[in-house]
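tool_log.txt
---
The assistant was asked to compare two proteins side by side. It first ran the structure predictor on the initial sequence, then on the second. Raw inputs and outputs are pasted verbatim so the downstream comparison step can read them without reformatting.
(1)
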Amino acid sequence: MNGIPVWAQAGFWGLVSGGALVIGAGVAYFVPVGQRIIAAIMAFGSGVLISALAFELMDEAYRTGGFTSTAIGFLGGAAVYTLANWELSRRGAKHRKRSGKQQPSEQEDSGSGMAIAVGSILDGIPESIVIGLSMLHGGAVSFVAVIAIFLSNIPEGLSSAAGMKKAGRSAGYIFGLWCGIAVICGLASLIGYVIFRGFPAYVVAGTTAIAAGAILAMLVDTMIPEAFEQAHDFAGLITVAGFLAAFALSKLGG
């Protein structure tokens, strides 16, 4: 992408990774996918993200900022995400990633549609910021991070959209939400690059660790429960396969 400003590239790659949410939502809406298959895909995506945050995010944060800023950021990101998710769960967004009939309809829980939308945005922003941060060193994107986030976003959109459809949400709501989040992912990636390119290494490291902590908390709170409930006999094995796939990708990319 020679000749294109780096900030524009950051936004583009954030949009690409966020676009996987729309792909997943489209599959869920138009193709009858069984819940066990969705759960298996969720397990694989969880393994991919766990590997990416361990070998890409945390390792990079530690090498550039040391243990203290990494640890503070990691715990802080998890704490902030958990508090925000707890509040949104109280407002009807607790099961936003579930593919069954757990999600409430607007008639059952007024305001849950907005809470689900905000919660979905909350889930996507940390991942997208990471893409922008990865371009601070030499202006080249981390393709491992982009591919890992893209692969994990497909099951997120797939499972969540399946649950939204069963809760009676309209096609306009479902696709408007995920298309909007894809755009927000692009903006978050752009902002991650533009805002932090002038900051010292320890601040960037702390921010990367914050994103990693938020991502891990999101996995445990929203993705892994769906994976375990429907594919519990094989969820662990499938998650390990996803982890290994991302690990291999990181080593080949390195």
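(2)
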Amino acid sequence: MISYLVSSTTGKVTGRWMPVFLGIELTNHCNLNCPECITGSGQMTRPKGFMPIGLFERILAESGPYLYNINLYFQGEPMMHPDFFIFLEKAAHHHSIVSTNGQFLTPGNAEKLARSGLSRLIVSLDGMDQQTYTAYRKNGNFQKTLEGVKNVSAAITRSSSSLILEIQFLVNRQNESQIGEAEKFASEVNARLSLKSMQVLDLERAEEWLPERETFKRYTKTEGGFILKSRLRNQCLRQWLNPVVTWDGKVIPCCFDKNSDHIFGDLNQHSFKEIWQGEKAKHFRQWLLNGRSQIGMCRNCTTGLSGVKY
């Protein structure tokens, strides 16, 4: 934090540190085709695969002592990894979070999740009937997700688990009228409800998704089209605290670098510390401090948004 504050104030990257938050992509495969997701929409250009357990173990061995939180997801459905529950077991001593589309929450899997040591499970439920739900969650089964949430809730109760169950509801034009139903359902299953605004990959399609309520609109309309509601200040805490590791070991700046356009280094060739404190990482942070608006992925980032839930 000291390094971040000094660097942001002076405009010059300084200090040596390790991150306390880490995103780890178990896989970038997904079973759904969500239109504003780079994976589901078919816009992902990097190879697809599954993280080897050995790589995960090396990440934890080196970075684990510094970490407070691990997000075990990025650009895919983590429960599609054949060794998914082994990853949870390895991460049990850390505060860990998984986000899932809810299509794999069978009674058996729900029991394993409740007993796994996982800290929080986020389940995407973007509608309260099949038609509304699949407006965004293409090829998804609404009833399966609903039953999956109930399975996890029941398993948590049975095992007196500390697992926090959270329902994530991406508020858009299709489902805005169903927020009340989502709140009621979350209460019934003892889950948190997270109401979030939607990121749109192609701003020309923003109007198709933007809801009426301003607090859930990430974008505002101008004469030239839609732009993000952000001043894009030349600072970003993510670059000091929260990088992401892709399934194949690439270290990237944050969760907005979905296609790994800014690779700091490869964990199959160098240690995490060498990469995180290396020249490519420093150069990127300096680039951000010099002019964040010059970086494409930053122009659609939630950091700096005002008055919007994200």
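---
observation on (2): The chain has a mean pLDDT of 95. Residues 142-159 form the longest helix (18 residues).
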